[in-house]
Amino acid sequence: MQQRKYFGTDGIRGEANKELTIDIAVRLGYALAYYLKKKNPDKKKIDVVIGSDTRISGYMLRSALMAGISSMGVHITYVGVLPTPGVAYLTQVKSADAGIMISASHNPAKDNGIKIFRSNGTKLPDEIELELEVLMDDYEEISKECVVGDKVGKILMEDDDYFLYRDYLLSTVKGDFSGMKIILDSANGAAFKLARSVFSRLGAEIVSINDLPTGTNINVKCGSTHPEILAKVVIGYSADLGLAYDGDADRLMAVDKFGNIIDGDKIISILALNLKEKDELNNNKVVTTVMSNMGFEKYLENKGITLVRANVGDRYVIAKMKEQGLNLGGEQSGHIIMSDYNTTGDGVLVSLKLVEALRDCGKSIDELVSGIVDWPQILINVRVENSKKNTWDENSAIKEIIRIKEKEMDGLGRVLVRTSGTEPLVRVMVEGKDKIQVDSVAAVIADVVKKELE
């Protein structure tokens, strides 16, 4: 794939006003508007939906982005602070030509990002992102097509569109949650109003924490990446469970009544079994990533559910789901996609469906995941010559030792070798039922990698 200049694995992201600058935002606005106009030459009115999380830099970037877009005659509906999946949903509902979320997700408050959705609510494919990058670097030329005077695009502030998304989420639940006590941690982010609103309307007893955003406290020792405080509050309030979102609420992590963290894989297991019981789990398969534990895989297998692995990253999970026609997938990190309801990971939606599943089966979350026993796992980071790190999978000695050791484990373990994207490291991960064997296999493979690539 062609080397990228601006876009990463999830849009454009970086420290606000340093790596993600006003200049980049304006040029992206120009480029996207130009692209949409060229793609729809006969369309008289082109519309873009924009939402944001609670970061203080969001106002700055939003203004720059809107300036570039509207100066090309494209109209904008700003829907206010809303989770990323809410923007994806409204892009479809409002028949917009594109949607944009201004957020750096689970990153620190100093960072920000820009994600773009197509009219169907899915993220842009690589080829369109690369096309936009070319246009961004040619903005002096494409800006010649800016409109003038009263031909510029209108900018509408439609904060009430929040209710369209909220009411849609409510419509996905049958019955209510009366009699349940739930602690919500919104990470001082995009779900700070939405989460407590939907759960309160469904009759649950709610305690909401980290729901007072200042613009600088998003994700600070809270939310899905730091659920430690949530765990203490769940215990302190004798709650049934806790639910934690990240800054843009496309992730969910849970906490049981004993304060144990329930990761994305375990949440997927509960949802998968619930869907299977209702005969609603497509092909009785789920998609997770290469990082999912084999103990989790064997647990699902024993329940009649096949685990399909994708590369790390929600875009790869979604691609695998589409490829095999599946309706549930996600990652350990809490990105969980229920494609019957939305096109992207949706933390609030998934939390509603999780609580609905708990209510329907009459069991607590700790009871439902008690049968999942993670197999021992070890990760060894091998420092190698940076110029050689991406050649490990072409090295005959490394490939042979991996083959031998995987055969030794005889289906009761696996080897995963990956390179670091930022450091001169080859990561050797070994997982298996027997810890002594796992440690031994990892050490042997790591020694060969070091010998061959240092």
Description:
The protein is an alpha/beta fold and 454 residues long. The chain has 3 domains: 152 residues, Alpha-D-Glucose-1,6-Bisphosphate, Chain A, domain 3 (3-Layer(aba) Sandwich); 198 residues, Alpha-D-Glucose-1,6-Bisphosphate, Chain A, domain 3; 77 residues, TATA-Binding Protein (2-Layer Sandwich). A 6-stranded mixed sheet has the order 1-5-4-2-3-6, with helices on both faces. Strand 17 and strand 18 form a beta hairpin. Helix 9 packs across helix 12 and helix 14 runs antiparallel to helix 15. The longest helix has 19 residues. It is globular, with a radius of gyration of 23 Å.
| CATH C-level of the largest domain | Alpha Beta
Question: How many domain units?
Answer: 3
Q: Mean pLDDT, rounded to whole units?
A: 95
CATH H-tier superfamily of the largest domain = Alpha-D-Glucose-1,6-Bisphosphate, subunit A, domain 3
What share of residues are in beta strands?
15-25%
**In whole angstroms, how far apart are the ends?**
27 Å
Radius of gyration (CA) equals: 23 Å
The name of the CATH topology of the largest domain is Alpha-D-Glucose-1,6-Bisphosphate, Chain A, domain 3
Please state how the strands of the largest beta sheet are arranged side by side: 1-5-4-2-3-6
**DSSP helix fraction:** 25-40%
Find the structural class using helix and strand composition.
alpha/beta
Query: What CATH architecture label of the largest domain applies?
Result: 3-Layer(aba) Sandwich
Low-confidence stretches: none
Give the quaternary arrangement of the chains: single chain
How many helix segments?
15
Largest sheet: number of strands, sense, barrel closure:
6 strands, mixed
Please give the number of β-strands.
Answer: 18
